[in-house]
Amino acid sequence: MKKANSIGCYLIQRLRAHGLRHVLAFPEITFSVSMSNSRTARCGSSNTCDEQGAGFAADAYARVRGLGAVCVTYCVGGLKVANTTAEAFAEKSPVVVISGAPGIKEREKNPLLHHKVREFDTQKRVFEQLTVASTALNDPQTAFHEIDGVLHAALRFKRPVYRKNNWTGH
Questions:
Q1: Strand order in the sheet with 22-25
Q2: Which of 20, 53, 113, 115 is 20 to 30 A from 74, alpha carbon to alpha carbon?
Q3: CA-to-CA distance for 167 and 7, rounded, in angstroms?
Q4: How far apart are CA 23 and CA 46, in angstroms?
């Protein structure tokens, strides 16, 4: 496999290696740019009119193809796929929930953000209850290993997993 030049490109490579060809999305801009710019592995995206629709579509995709993925915005948007993720868990459907988040530097002064609910990690704590594995990619040195770990868990246990990107660099 060719070396990935960013965390987003690595995730795309790994999803493609497991047979995923489309990510269902209510567009999360940073990851969408990575999907379109990846020279190592292209992955299509199919946008829906809201996050919940993307979550249900990713669940259906996983049931047919063996692995699905949904890409959503941070917190308020991300929490709209909590119900679809719970359904995927109950029905043993391996769905990767990919969410954006404010970067580490953006959190330093605890700014009031319109998508933030309670604390910066509220969304991750919710998804820890609905998935077999979850990770927040805070450290670029461990991100590739963490991605591999959650993908392995999704495929092994046939249940949803959660991946949140907090790091905004390459």
A1: 44-47, 22-25, 68-72, 95-99, 161-165, 133-137
A2: 20
A3: 9
A4: 6
Q: Where do the domains of the chain lie?
A: 7-165
- Rounded CA separation 126/108 (Å): 22
pLDDT digits (tens, 9 = 90+) for 130-158: 999 999 887 888 999 999 999 999 999 99
The mean pLDDT value for 18-36 works out to 69
Nearest Cα to Cα of residue 160 among 69, 99, 94, 91: 94
Q: pLDDT value at position 143?
A: 92
Say if residues 21 and 68 touch (Cβ distance below 8 Å).
no
Q: Report the range out of 22-31, 41-50, 77-86, 115-124 with the highest average pLDDT.
A: 77-86
Q: Which are the contacts of 53, defined by CB distance < 8 A and separation ≥ 6?
A: 26
What CATH number does the domain located at 7-165 have?
3.40.50.970
Task: Name the pTM for this structure.
Answer: 0.84
